[in-house]
């Protein structure tokens, strides 16, 4: 019976070691992390698409222990202990917003530090991450950045009421008007979606935007279009304030933006903002259209927003002409504009 038990343990350990270690997923937005602590290099990464932090732990076994079963048990047990210790160090490197990391937030409150330590103890081993290579045993831990962790570190901000949004673009300065010989009549943006949008996809490719837990969408003039102050905190804890992806086709059909029947509003970011380059900036024109679209779709409150990152695409306009151009009308002040009624999707002219 004892021999059979040893054989089963050896077989299970062999299968465990044969499985590949955890590694970043193709097409996901990942941020590689590493730091030195107590003379050792700690390695890990944040998978921003899956909203989780992954950290590795490595350990060796003294040479005088020759029993292979005992070596594996002690090796992985040691790697697990190291991984939890490394996770406690690495958690401080996670970016909360464009200017603050978790370590900065913990430094402001002992109670937050205690909460984070408790959450780290709840991290789980990634199935199949146990690997042995030339006497070095490795395990990977994963810590979700949603739920209780998000509740602990996301900033507590008063939510903006719907009537607090300034949909109109900023008025021109009086000095600039006085200095102009000819004043060009302001154009107002009227945005009428044919069908309510199910979310917003911000194309930030080519801008080197850095992911974080609580980014913002700003207008060129500094209006806050989206961020922690515009969302329902319960949605933010459950889904994250922003979704990140590198695959735009996958993002367009993601559950966050409505699934297979999604109808996301697509806009192009013009640049990044913030010390950490974590906020996306839209033109005043696009920023106003986002707010107008949200007044019908109510997608900002529910965190139905995704940033697409990666290299600059060949052509944005040719891919998304329908989403970004066809529903907008410019009218000059003083012109009369009358809506005759909404056309049903099936009644569109052929």
Task: Give an account of the 3D structure.
The chain has 350 residues and is α/β, with parallel strands linked by helices. It folds into two domains: 12-153, no CATH class; 162-334, no CATH class. It has helices at residues 2-18, 68-90, 102-107, 110-121, 148-153, 174-179, 233-239, 248-252, 284-297, 321-325; strands spanning 30-37, 40-47, 52-59, 124-125, 131-133, 136-144, 187-191, 200-203, 217-219, 224-226, 243-245, 265-268, 271-273, 279-282, 305-308, 328-332. A hairpin with a 5-residue loop joins β13 and β14 (279-282). The model is unreliable at 1-21, 179-186 and 331-345 (pLDDT under 50).
Ends apart, CA distance between termini: 78 Å
Counted by DSSP, the helix tally is: 10
Shape: elongated
Q: Count the E strands.
A: 16
How many domains is the backbone divided into? 2
Task: Tell me about the largest β-sheet.
Answer: 6 strands, antiparallel
Low-confidence stretches: 1-21, 179-186, 331-345
In angstroms, what is the radius of gyration? 26 Å
What's the order of the H and E elements? HEEEHHHEEEHHEEEEHEHEEEHEHE
Percent of residues in helices? 25-40%
**Beta-strand fraction estimate:** 15-25%
Please name the defining characteristics of this protein.
single chain, 350 residues, alpha/beta, 6-stranded antiparallel β-sheet, 4-stranded parallel β-sheet, 22% strand, elongated, disordered N terminus
Topology summary:
Elements lengths: L1 H17 L11 E8 L2 E8 L4 E8 L8 H23 L11 H6 L2 H12 L2 E2 L5 E3 L2 E9 L3 H6 L20 H6 L7 E5 L8 E4 L13 E3 L4 E3 L6 H7 L3 E3 L2 H5 L12 E4 L2 E3 L5 E4 L1 H14 L7 E4 L12 H5 L2 E5 L18
Parallel strand pairs: 8-12, 8-15, 9-14, 11-15
Antiparallel strand pairs: 1-2, 2-3, 3-6, 4-6, 5-6, 7-16, 9-10, 13-14
């Amino acid at each position: 019976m004892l021999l059979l038990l040893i054989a089963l343990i050896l077989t299970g350990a062999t299968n465990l070691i044969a499985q590949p270690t955890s590694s970043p997923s193709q097409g996901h937005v990942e941020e590689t992390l590493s730091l030195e602590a107590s003379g050792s290099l700690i390695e890990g990464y944040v998978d921003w698409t899956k909203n989780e932090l992954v950290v590795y732990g490595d350990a060796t076994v003294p040479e005088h222990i020759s029993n292979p079963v005992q070596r594996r048990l002690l090796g992985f047990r040691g790697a697990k202990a190291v991984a939890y210790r490394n996770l406690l160090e690495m958690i401080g490197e996670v970016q909360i917003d464009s200017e603050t990391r978790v370590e900065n937030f913990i430094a402001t409150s002992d109670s937050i530090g205690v909460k984070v330590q408790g959450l780290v103890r709840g991290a789980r081993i990634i199935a199949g991450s146990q690997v042995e290579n030339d006497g070095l045993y490795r395990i990977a831990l994963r810590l979700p950045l949603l739920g209780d962790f998000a509740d602990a570190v996301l900033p507590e901000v008063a939510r903006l009421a719907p009537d607090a949004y300034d949909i109109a673009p900023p008025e021109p300065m009086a000095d600039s008007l006085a200095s102009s010989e000819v004043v060009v009549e302001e154009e107002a943006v009227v945005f009428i979606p044919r069908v309510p949008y199910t979310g917003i996809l911000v194309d930030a490719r080519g801008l080197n935007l850095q992911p974080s837990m609580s980014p913002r969408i700003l207008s060129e003039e500094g209006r806050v279009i989206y961020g922690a102050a515009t969302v329902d905190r319960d949605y933010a804890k459950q889904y994250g304030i922003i979704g990140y992806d590198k695959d735009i086709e996958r993002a367009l059909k993601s559950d966050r933006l409505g699934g297979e029947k999604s109808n996301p509003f697509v806009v192009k970011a013009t640049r990044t903002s913030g010390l950490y380059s974590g906020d996306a900036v839209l033109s005043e024109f696009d920023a106003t259209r986002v707010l107008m679209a949200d007044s019908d779709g109510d997608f900002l409150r529910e965190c139905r927003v995704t940033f697409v990152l990666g290299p600059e695409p060949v052509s944005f306009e040719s891919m998304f002409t329908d989403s970004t151009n066809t529903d907008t009308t410019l009218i000059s002040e003083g012109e009369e504009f009358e809506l005759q009624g909404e056309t049903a999707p099936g009644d569109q002219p052929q």
